[in-house]
Design a protein that fits this description.
This protein has 110 residues and is an all-beta fold. Helices cover 0% and strands 42% of the residues. The strands form 2 sheets. Strands 5-4-10-1-2-9-6-7 form an 8-stranded antiparallel beta sheet, with no helix packed on it. Strands 3-8 form a two-stranded antiparallel ribbon.
Length: 110
């Protein structure tokens, strides 16, 4: 017995199981920056801050095609490594994935 055209078997289809994405509540995400520019060769972005950001913070980068979590490892202002940055600063951030100008950056508060 074969499978009729247009029907699917209920067994294992050979496809990997889709990962369930972790949802982040809007109450836990505080907007802190917007991406101004991305440098693909070094994997870094220039951010214009509208809130405070520290090394070690957990951030969410979200845009039209971007959506990932990352911990802030490197933060630079004026070419020098800094531990914290405040609103209205422009800072460089090493990113784990590609980001695009206009993407928003949120600090997660748990």
């Amino acid at each position: 017995m074969g499978v009729r055209p247009g029907t699917r078997s209920k067994g294992n289809t050979g496809q990997p199981k889709a990962r369930r994405r972790r949802r982040v509540s809007e109450a836990a995400a505080v907007p802190v920056a917007r991406v101004q520019h991305y440098f693909p060769r070094c994997g870094a972005a220039i951010l214009h801050l509208c809130g405070d950001l520290r090394r070690g913070d957990l951030i969410l980068v979200r845009g039209q095609t971007t959506d990932f979590l990352q911990r802030v490892e490197q933060l630079q202002r004026g070419g020098k490594e800094v531990a914290t940055a405040t609103a209205e600063d422009e800072v460089g951030l090493a990113t784990e994935q590609v980001v695009r100008p206009g993407d928003r950056v949120y600090r997660l508060c748990f």
